[in-house]
Amino acid sequence: xxxxxxxxxxxxxxxxxxxxxxxxxxxxxxxxxxxxxxxxxxxxxxxxxxxxxxxxxxxxxxxxxxxxxxxxxxxxxxxxxxxxxxxxxxxxxxxxxxxxxxxxxxxxxxxxxxxxxxxxxxxxxxxxxxxxxxxxxxxxxxxxxxxxxxxxxxxxxxxxxxxxxxxxxxxxxxxxxxxxxxxxxxxxxxxxxxxxxxxxxxxxxxxxxxxxxxxxxxxxxxxxxxxxxxxxxxxxxxxxxxxxxxxxxxxxxxxxxxxxxxxxxxxxxxxxxxxxxxxxxxxxxxxxxxxxxxxxxxxxxxxxxxxxx
Length: 309
Description:
With 309 residues, the protein is α/β, with parallel strands linked by helices. 32% of the residues lie in helices and 20% in strands.
């Protein structure tokens, strides 16, 4: 995984927070809010990340949005980043936990803390699938998806499809069962993943998410909640994103039958880069284009027109 400089500057206060999920698991997050206590906060934004990507990777984006009047919550799923405690081998954490419990708790926290302003979500990678799983998803007014995909291997970009299949759907489950978790950091393949979360990703060999009674028990109720999401959704894809090319976003959007969506694809050349990839949304050099587009979508015009600071 590419290392991203997460140092922040500007009139934004970072407030660490601990909050608890419905099943009693403590998660760690950070609120990014304008330093000026008299500043009017226009929108509460929850940022939910990709598999194995710590919340700190989204700090620059959160800083950017907070400078423009948003209250932004970044956080880590159980077993990831600052929410990793104890032995990862003993942690029971699958994609259903991240979606139905961890993201749900983060969204409920934002709604409770800012009950009188609009509630928005920015989701990256497979986190785009989690948004509809929360009981409070009906209260989300606007959403931005970065690099939306479900982890299904045939949705990977054709150029890298078979290589990614071998790594994530053959190699990863074997290593995960051997180690008791997926040691992504040691292998330079992203962050470590809890056993069940890694196996959930590796099992995405068929287009449907629910394939058997066990899947129905774990994911059926969560997926059924997606119909309650009625937000306006901006989908931003990058043309050279191996994990989430533009076509992969269509499968994610099919889970949300009642949203109104706009899908835009950005090429590296249009921003003056040779390559952007799956993390192009987060890097300092290329990220500002996507952040500006996001602020224009989520925030009122008077907020996005103000210079930072």
